[in-house]
Specification:
Radius of gyration: 30 Å
Number of domains: 4
Oligomer: single chain
Distance between the termini: 79 Å
Strand order of the largest sheet: 8-7-4-5-6-9-10
Largest sheet: 7 strands, mixed
Shape: elongated
Strand content: 5-15%
Length: about 725
């Protein structure tokens, strides 16, 4: 018989009593050491990080809950007896698991209101069901992102911070860096010396204690500045309003505690850097005379940060901020926060600085929906409206300097980005439940993200084609992929290439998949010894002709080759190596005999024909176009690509045939005459003579028709 789940408030009351027992503060220190510390030898490996995704580990939100209850009464710092300490650990785990079950039960009850009832997935969009993923959904940012982005976020607010708090935001960052170094040293020292002490004296609490003098010495900041920073994030009340997991927990905004001997106690470094990133905005919002300016700076940060990160990938010439869409009569139709151009592909970014309010976190349906509308839905609606105008071509694009932008190509694919500035709990989950979106072949499904995901994406996928390829694949699987967080999807892609079989209706990705990305980001941003790039799509084919071809396609930014590039990036490793081998073979043969050679790869319902042809472009294009045309017909494929390279495997040009297959008696006859020439092999199949081909000369593709009636239409300069 299934055990009855206790009411959440009953469990919370028992947990409150437990956290306020004598010496419980030492249990919190133990949990922080056990569940927030990663040890490794020479280099951090995935197996070192996997324990951070163990179901037995307490989440930061759970430890914050314990801390929020601890501070509601005077803290007893006496070390408890061993038996009492063990009871604290065991009972905490039991109560937190029971609390999770209680919150989950509410979610399931909302989906199945009565025994034997039919499940209603739409119920997941209700507040009662969303409380669980909001609380247990995990973190969206790395601690170094909070720490390093705070100076960017508050750069314009330093005069206010100096006047009202006594420090600039860069000083808060320096204090955070000093604290983590101090705590790491103390934890390492305790790890080596603790067992030398009598068991009844064991405690990890000293590792989380620090003084202003220690921080000043480690940061080289003046002591008064350090003191101002520490005091700004010091808890000064009893946190009595914290009566359920959805209530405001003051220890998140002010994570520092003061001990009776004057030291500072910080259990979770993550909470400290998050507070540095988020709390100053709320301080400034209390100043009525400064509210508008603070909000303006916050919005500017989101836009400029998105532009900066995308510029690192696409280049400054292709990224434009604050672009107005103006009708021919001068009427403003819309504004794009950040516009990215890459061939005939566009990214339309709409940035918002809204976040989930306290009432929404409590499960209030109305607040959940209104918060989501302000943060995401409005952003998407603006992006889609702008995308529609871009496709019609009936408006001018004017940048922030008043300069008109001219698109080189008519857009064929537009990717709407909705970017928020802060951690938005269960963002991916909420987007799947609440977002009303209309996608077409040209306007892709929206990609909803925070600045932290955008940062990780642009850090790991540093080239335009690879970043757009990932975005394209992610959009294609909207509704078929379930994940607690998008960082997990990115990590999976880096390892295995994001691809779903057409027969796969649904796939779930676990949190632990993110370990490889976690390590790579830590290596790149914190200097942790380890692999800066996960073993996978960015490493297995490095220094191959395949990778070189991808780079050359990016450099050309031509619609035809971009589309081929997307196809190449979806191929499996074996197919990629076949392409690499084919390139090496035909270019080697051309260098040896000076003749044209080719090979063809069939990929699902389409294919690629590659020519290495020393003939002039006009001749080579005719040969390649004719070959692709016949290949496409033979395979009855809706689309076929052609590439022409020189003897050194440099990309010359590409062709794309994209139309439905239709029977042709003429082509049937041509194919019958040239079957041998069109056999799939990586050897010479076409011999091209030099010199200009006359319009009435036989077409060099071997069709038997005159050049003017065959491949002349495919000629390129």
């Amino acid at each position: 018989m299934e055990a009855k789940v206790r009411a959440e408030n009953e469990i919370f009351a028992e947990l409150t009593a437990l956290c306020q027992e004598p010496g419980y503060v030492h249990a919190i220190a133990y949990f922080c050491y056990r569940d927030n510390t990663v040890g490794f030898n020479d280099e951090m490996q995935p197996q070192d990080m996997l324990r951070m995704y163990s179901p037995e580990r307490l989440l930061r939100t759970e430890i914050s809950t314990l801390l929020g209850l601890l501070v509601q009464t005077d803290i007893d710092y006496a070390i408890p007896p061993i038996a009492t300490f063990e009871r604290y650990i065991e009972q905490t785990g039991v109560l937190l698991e029971e609390l999770h079950q209680a919150m989950s039960a509410v979610m399931w009850a909302s989906m199945i209101p009565a025994p034997g009832g039919i499940p209603n997935p739409a119920a997941l969009a209700r507040g009662a069901a969303l409380r669980e993923p909001i609380f247990y959904g995990g973190e969206s940012a790395y601690p170094f992102q909070y720490r390093d982005f705070a100076p960017l976020k508050y750069a314009g607010d330093n005069p206010w911070l100096l006047q009202h708090k006594g420090f600039a935001i860069e000083s808060a960052k320096a204090v955070a860096q000093a604290i983590v170094a101090i705590q790491n040293d103390k934890l390492l020292q305790l790890h080596h010396t603790l067992r030398e002490q009598p068991p009844e004296t064991w405690t990890l609490l000293p590792a989380y204690l620090l003084t202003a003098e220690e921080v000043a010495a480690a940061s080289t900041l003046p002591l008064d500045v350090v003191t101002h920073v520490l005091q700004a994030f010091l808890l000064t009340d009893r946190n009595r309003q914290f009566q359920s997991v959805g209530d405001f927990n003051a220890t998140n905004a002010a994570p520092l505690l003061r001990t009776p001997d004057g030291k500072y106690l910080l259990f979770q470094y993550y909470s400290f850097v998050e507070a540095i990133y988020e709390s100053p905005f709320y301080w400034m919002m209390q100043d009525k005379g400064y509210r508008a300016q603070a909000s303006e700076h916050r919005g500017q940060f989101t836009e400029s940060f998105a532009a900066q990160r995308l510029t690192a990938v696409f280049g400054s010439a292709n990224v434009h901020q604050n672009v107005d869409l103006v009708a021919r009569k001068g009427v403003k139709l819309g504004e794009i926060d950040v516009l990215v151009l890459f061939g005939d592909r566009l990214i339309v970014v709409q940035a918002k600085s809204k976040r989930l309010t306290l009432e929404a976190r409590k499960g209030n349906d109305g607040h959940l929906r209104s918060d989501f509308k302000a943060a995401i839905q409005d952003s998407y609606d603006q992006a889609r409206e702008c995308a529609v105008h871009l496709l019609t071509g009936e408006c001018k694009l004017v940048d922030a300097q008043g300069i008109e932008l001219h698109l080189k190509h008519k857009p064929t694919e537009i990717f709407p980005f909705c970017v928020v500035a802060d951690h938005y709990p269960a963002l991916s989950f909420q987007a799947g439940q609440f977002l009303k979106a209309e996608s077409t072949a040209a306007i892709r499904p929206p990609f909803v993200m925070d600045v932290f995901l955008l940062d990780a994406m642009t850090e790991m996928l540093e080239s335009p084609l690879r970043l757009l390829g990932f975005i394209r694949q992610r959009a294609a699987y909207a509704g078929r992929l379930s994940t607690p967080h998008e960082l997990t999807v990115l990590s999976y892609h880096l390892k295995r290439n994001l691809w779903l079989d057409d027969e796969a209706n649904f796939m779930m990705l676990g949190d632990d998949i993110a370990v490889d990305l976690d390590i790579a980001m830590g290596v790149r941003r914190e200097g942790i010894p380890g692999a800066r790039t996960p073993e996978g799509i960015l490493t297995k084919l490095s220094r191959t002709l395949f990778e070189r071809l991808i780079q050359q396609i990016e450099q050309k930014e031509e619609p035809t080759t971009i589309e081929l590039g997307f196809l190449l990036l979806t191929m499996g490793e074996d197919t990629c190596r076949s392409l690499d081998q084919g390139l090496r073979q035909i270019t080697g043969m051309t260098r040896a005999d000076g003749k044209a050679h080719d090979f063809t790869l069939g990929i699902a319902t389409q294919g690629v024909t590659v020519h290495c042809n020393p003939a002039p472009n006009g001749v080579a294009a005719g040969v390649l176009g004719g070959h692709c045309y016949r290949r496409k017909y033979m395979q009855r494929a809706p689309r076929w690509f052609g590439l022409c390279v020189d003897a050194d495997a440099n990309l010359r040009f590409g062709v794309m045939l994209d139309f439905e297959w239709e029977y042709s008696a003429e082509l049937e006859q041509q194919i019958a005459r040239t079957t041998r020439q069109l056999a799939v092999k990586a050897s010479s199949s076409l011999v091209v003579r030099g010199g200009k081909i006359g319009r009435n000369d036989p077409c060099p593709c071997g069709s038997g028709s005159k050049y003017k009636k065959c491949c002349i239409a495919n000629e390129v300069p």
